[in-house]
Amino acid sequence: MRKLFKGSSGVVKLSKGFGQKGYSLPPKPWLVVAWKEVLEAFRDRRTMLNVVLLPMILMPLVISLPTLMLSPKAIPPRIMVVVEDPRGMDLAKEIEALEDTSKALVSIVTDGGNYTGLVLGGDYDLIVEIPEGFYQNLSSGRTGQLIYYYDPYGARSSVAMGVVQRVVSEYSEEVLRRRLEAINLSEEYIRPIVSVAVQVTSTGEGATTGEVVTAMVLPMMVGLIAITGAGTFAIDMIAGERERKTLEALFTNPVSRGQLLLGKFGALTLLSLISGLATLFSALIGVGFAVTSMSESLSSGSVPQLMEPSRLLYLTLGILITVALGGLTGNAVMITAASFAKTFKEAQQYVGFLTLILVVPMVAIPYAPQSFHPVLRALPISSLAMFARDMIVNPGDLGAIATSLAASILYLVVFLWLSAKMFGRESVIFS
């Protein structure tokens, strides 16, 4: 590695290889400080792990793992069909056909034995009993009864029941059609009212499953990025350096406090952007997995579209803006909190307290009624999450987008001013 500083010119060599080729940063004091902070951060192996690798690996797992665990195709439920009525075998064969689509593992028997032990012992997720007299009731125009044995505390039992009920519903529809044809009636005779659900959106177009899930997840992700930002680095750059007594040495250089703060902010912004983009785009990957798994669990047909291609570029632009604003805002809050602390541990306690306060609106936004949205657009941090939501849900409502964006920028300016004010205190150097 070449020398970090070359004389008093402030020229910084990127590396030995780059340095030999003549690449260097301009002699700006705040760039020198920023490069020094970024270099120290990336020298720590934990930086790449915490900032990039962990979000990219864990976020898709956190979002998609619950639905993957319940997906019939990922882990097919085990179903036993007990046929006590021999003429009910045709329905049992319909259920057994689920194996052809890999949505269940089906066993057909004529004697089930101890149902309680089989379900609670984990041998089967669901037992379907076709009792004696089932077919006789159907053929005579009466109702045939099926009996389900399941574990009410087991999610996989509920998934298995849903898979079987779709098959039974189709079988029941076929029996009904035959009955109506026999008496020369149509299906409309028994369905005098049909409900039709129409989506009402600001764009006038239907929302895809991916857009619905993204609108639920993205605001919370943006909020977490705004709260954490490059939180560990922000704390270490102020409280950590003060505790190690290196901040005093840094202030002895012929660089103004404003340039020092600007350099630290530049480094934090870069780290926040890397972490934020890795987190958000890996979250979108997780949403894709979740939507695919949901389609397998909730429908037997086509996979719903993740996102309209025409809106993908618009969403990407919104993500970039929210990540940048969120990272800057989070860093400003962290620097302000760290300026109050005497030690790294104390700064962590302040940040933990702020996180508990700021996480509340993030959780509330996906479930808040429409009447709360104007208020949420005007509150700190939640305005960022509302901006992200508006870019997905209300892309045509420029007033809502402008309001949440203006509030986010306003709070960013306030937090930047406050962090600069706190950083300029003598107590930042002397505990």
Question: Would you give an account of this structure?
Answer:
It is built from 16 helices and six strands. It is mainly alpha-helical and 431 residues long. It folds into two domains: 44-67 and 208-428, no CATH class; 76-189, abc type-2 transporter like domain (abc type-2 transporter like fold, 3-Layer(aba) Sandwich), CATH 3.40.1710.10. It has a four-stranded mixed beta sheet. α2 (29-43) packs across α11 (257-298) and α3 (45-70) runs parallel beside α11. It starts with 11 loop residues before the first strand and ends in an 8-residue tail after the last helix.
Strands, helices and their partners?
Blueprint lengths: L11 E2 L2 H5 L3 E2 L3 H15 L1 H26 L7 E6 L5 H8 L8 E5 L5 H6 L5 E5 L3 H6 L7 E4 L4 H28 L26 H20 L2 H13 L2 H6 L5 H42 L10 H32 L3 H21 L8 H6 L3 H12 L4 H26 L8
Parallel strand pairs: 3-4, 3-5
Antiparallel strand pairs: 1-2, 5-6
Helix pairs in contact: 2-11, 3-11, 8-11, 8-12, 8-13, 8-15, 9-12, 9-13, 11-12, 12-13, 12-15, 12-16, 15-16
Order of strands, main sheet, comes to 4-3-5-6
Tell me, rounded to a whole number, the average pLDDT.
75
Judged by helices, strands and strand pairing, the structural class is mainly alpha
User: Considering DSSP H and I runs of 4 or more, what fraction of the residues is helical?
Assistant: 55-70%
The fraction of residues in strands falls at 5-15%
Poorly predicted regions are 1-23, 297-305
Helical stretch count? 16
Query: What string, H for helix and E for strand, traces the elements in order?
Result: EHEHHEHEHEHEHHHHHHHHHH
Cα separation of the termini: 34 Å
What is the number of independent domains?
2
Main β sheet profile: 4 strands, mixed
Strand element count? 6
Given the C-alpha coordinates, what overall shape results?
A: elongated
Radius of gyration: 30 Å
